[in-house]
Amino acid sequence: MSKRGAITFWLETILRCGIALLFLYAGGIKAFHTQEFAYDVQSYQLTSWTFSILIAVYLPWLELCLGAAMLVRRFYVGALACGALLTCVFLGAILSGWWRKLDITCGCFGPEVNRTNYPLHLTVDVAILLTFLVLLLTSRQHFREGNSPN
Amino acid sequence: MIRRGLREFIIIILLAALPAAVSGYLQLEWRGAPQPELQPDEVRPGTARMWGSHVLWVDARSRERYDAGHVHGAILLNEDHWEELVPAFLDAWDPEKTIVVYCDGGKCDASRAVATRLRDELKLESVYVLQGGWTAWHEYERTHTKK
């Protein structure tokens, strides 16, 4: 492996594991606080209570699954696509809350007491989305070279 | 690669559904009556509704949020424009009424901050914070006026 190749490999590994662990943490902490998370989802005032409950039940496990898939590099491309799509949804919700000047807690990492710092959350979500896109591009490159991640 | 990505995407979606279904089954006994623990100075939407005309509602959110929708008869009083808004509150204040302050969500700080100032600065005693805020009230009204 060339020096450039080695740097790319380690950079990709760090990004992949970092995002995977972030999603595992976010999903893990919410999976066992369903009720509190349902309230956080509901406070965005974008969904009915029933749909907020469904999101609160399902979303943490989706985050856990895609985090685990990224960590062990199984269903890798699907996990990246799913993560990018989820991050877009989070970005939309945060933007919508900011637009409507909602005074709420984000709910991103389980039960929180601090109100949402919209610029900070937007920055973090944009950074996560960019990371997903970089990982998707590198995985496409691997695929073209016949060096598939799975 | 797109086809494979799509297939894996669907697998991830389905894989997550399995533990979510089990978790939902085990955790959702509260869904019909979502009532988190009540703090001593909090009141639930149902109770505040029961108090009816004996409540003076205080909306602790921004002017924009208040204009977008508020509890019927609520007075706008937020921390950002306290000095400017407090005279209108005092005009509406009635010692016979219980004050219920609300903000947007279940855990927003604004209602608690305004309730504290009402107690500390105006020496008012009967001041409560609406549990779940405007979100919970809106949901309560929606579910209880449908029938």
Number-wise, the strands of chain A total 0
Tell the overall outline of chain B: elongated
Give the total of beta strands of chain B: 5
Helix content of chain A: over 70%
Q: What is the H/E order of chain A?
A: HHHHH
**Could you name the ranges of chain B where pLDDT drops below 50 across 5 or more consecutive residues?**
none
Q: What is the count of distinct domains of chain A?
A: 1
Rounded radius of gyration of chain B (Å): 21 Å
Q: Do you know the CATH topology of the largest domain in chain B?
A: Oxidized Rhodanese, domain 1
Give the N-terminus to C-terminus distance of chain A in angstroms: 19 Å
- Strand numbers in spatial order across the main sheet of chain B: 1-5-4-2-3
Describe the fold and architecture.
Chain A is 75% helix and 0% strand. With 150 residues, chain A is mainly α. Chain A has one domain. The longest helix of chain A has 29 residues, at 3-31. Chain A is elongated. Chain B has 147 residues and is α/β, with parallel strands linked by helices. Chain B has 2 domains: 1-33; 42-145, 3-Layer(aba) Sandwich (Oxidized Rhodanese, domain 1). Chain B is built from 6 helices and 5 strands; from the N terminus they run αβαβαβαβαβα. In chain B, strand 4, helix 5 and strand 5 (127-130) form a beta-alpha-beta unit. Classes of the chains: A mainly alpha (150), B alpha/beta (147). The A-B interface holds A 31, 34-36, 38-40, 42-43, 45, 49, 53, 57-58, 60-62, 64-66, 69, 75-82, 100-105, 112-113, 115, 140, 143 and B 1, 4-13, 15-17, 19-20, 23-24, 27-28, 30-31, 34, 36, 61-62, 64-65, 68, 103-110, 132-133, 135, 138-139, 143.
